[in-house]
């Protein structure tokens, strides 16, 4: 019993002390994984991916990705400077690469390593549409979502270890059932909402970034409507890592005035 109490207390203390405050949201976030280790791994994996991919360089499309990405980066720096938090960005190593692929997607790794697939360009339609995508991806990096996901995975493992300890005196069938219920519950009520929260945050902060960069945030709604139309429905929102198309566009429409106000306060870029 004392061992169980000690483990629970140690886990509680770990969660409390392993937090960091994000300058873009003002929120305290989970940081069980050291950023130095995470970024080193991220940069290495990113380079390995590029080495094995069909990179597009020297084209108008590649130049467009680089131009929009840098405008969003400058907006992020302007925002951080206004908050007196420029030092927050010192570890970031921004890179924006266009990769030949029919996949309608873009993604970001911790530390600012971003890939845009050519398959998404017809959906973005123009520079403002691409700014929606890159604002969203840059926001993921700025909000340290990679660190939070890694930390959540570690916390889930700690929880599983705790279940194992508490059920150790039960029958094997009871132990297996407990782990199955824990795994399903921690995903449904923990990991999935956690991931949807990240997507909402990236939409919100990304919208503000694109507005500060001088792009039109109103373009975000028709862009995500086009993306949603490609998805064709499917998984219910509560079982998904992403918000539904209706939720996403409703939130964006609600946040547009705030984005414009922030851009006016800081001055738009270009």
Provide an overview of this structure.
The protein has 270 residues and is of the alpha+beta class. It has helices at residues 2-17, 35-51, 60-82, 121-124, 127-142, 145-166, 172-212, 220-231, 245-266, and strands at residues 19-21, 28-30, 55-56, 95-99, 106-109, 113-117. The strands form 2 sheets. Strands 3-4-6-5 form a 4-stranded mixed beta sheet, with helices on both faces. The chain has a two-stranded antiparallel ribbon with strand order 1-2. Strand 5 (106-109) and strand 6 (113-117) form a beta hairpin. Helix 1 runs antiparallel to helix 6 (145-166), helix 5 (127-142) packs across helix 7 and helix 6 (145-166) packs antiparallel against helix 7. The longest helix is centred in the C-terminal third of the chain and has 41 residues, at 172-212. Mean pLDDT is 77; it is low at 1-17, 158-163, 174-194 and 232-240.
From N to C, what is the helix and strand string?
HEEHEHEEEHHHHHH
Could you tell me the number of beta strands? 6
3D shape: globular
Number of domains: 1
In short:
This protein is α+β, with helices and mostly antiparallel strands and 270 residues long. The chain is 64% helix and 8% strand.
Q: Strands, helices and their partners?
A:
Layout: H1 2-17, E1 19-21, E2 28-30, H2 35-51, E3 55-56, H3 60-82, E4 95-99, E5 106-109, E6 113-117, H4 121-124, H5 127-142, H6 145-166, H7 172-212, H8 220-231, H9 245-266
Helix pairs in contact: 1-6, 3-5, 5-7, 6-7, 7-9, 8-9
């Amino acid at each position: 019993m004392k061992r169980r109490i000690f483990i629970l207390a140690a886990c509680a203390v770990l969660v409390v002390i392993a937090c960091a405050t994000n300058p873009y949201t003002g929120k305290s976030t989970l940081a069980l994984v050291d950023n130095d280790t995470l970024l080193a791994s991220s940069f290495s994996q990113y380079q390995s991916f590029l080495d094995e991919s069909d990179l597009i360089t020297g084209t108008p499309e590649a130049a467009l990705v680089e131009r929009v990405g840098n405008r969003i980066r400058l907006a992020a720096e302007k925002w951080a400077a206004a908050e007196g938090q420029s030092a927050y960005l010192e570890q970031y190593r921004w890179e924006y690469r266009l990769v030949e692929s029919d996949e309608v997607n873009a993604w970001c790794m911790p530390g600012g390593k971003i890939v845009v697939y050519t398959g998404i360009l017809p959906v973005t339609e123009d520079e403002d549409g691409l700014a929606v995508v890159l604002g969203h991806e840059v926001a993921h990096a700025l909000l340290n979502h990679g660190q939070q996901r890694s930390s959540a995975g570690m916390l889930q493992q700690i929880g599983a270890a705790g279940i194992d300890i508490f059920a150790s005196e039960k029958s094997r069938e009871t132990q297996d059932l407990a782990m199955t219920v824990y795994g399903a519950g921690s995903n449904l009520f923990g990991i999935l909402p956690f991931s949807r929260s990240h997507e909402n945050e990236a939409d919100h902060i990304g919208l503000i970034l694109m507005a500060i960069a001088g792009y039109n945030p109103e373009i975000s709604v028709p862009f995500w409507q086009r993306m949603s139309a490609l998805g064709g429905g499917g998984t219910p929102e509560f079982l998904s890592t992403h918000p539904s198309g209706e939720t996403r566009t409703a939130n964006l429409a609600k946040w547009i005035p705030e984005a414009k106000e922030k851009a006016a306060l800081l001055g738009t870029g270009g």
